[in-house]
Fold Sigma-70 family RNA polymerase sigma factor.
Amino acid sequence: MDEHDSEVFVRSLYEQAAPALYAFIYRFTRDRALAEDVLQEVFVRAWRRAGHLEPRSDALRRWLFAATRNHLIDVWRARTKLSVTTYCEQVAAAPHVVDDVDRIVQRRVLTDAIDELTPKHRDVLMERYFQCRSIAETARRLGVSSGTVKSRTYHALRALRVLLDEGGIATR
């Protein structure tokens, strides 16, 4: 991708994603100027990686939120370079902010990954893990054999693991 294509790509990406990213950033910073700075840095990173990013893909959205989260953590760390005592007090109080960001990003990546599964794989995981049904109950509800439920569960979990790894969530 040449420089002109990169600029067009990032401009289009900015128009589509900036409002959601800004709201996400502002929710954690409560500082308009800082939120704008973080947003700008994320799009500079996107511009630098434009040749490696897939336009209009779910992976691109996950990458944007992961890059935003990482930059927010960097900003938070830079702001907490204080004395050891003050730093320890802030670490004890602040993980909720970082955890909230992680949890939101992970929930979004998980939701997107589940949506990308085939309907058969999604259905078996929903029955087994979200409805807490046994293999026999799942087989009965889906109208398939127990062996099919086991096989689909195995393959669905493998596919989900790949999607989560692509989304930046460690699965091992």
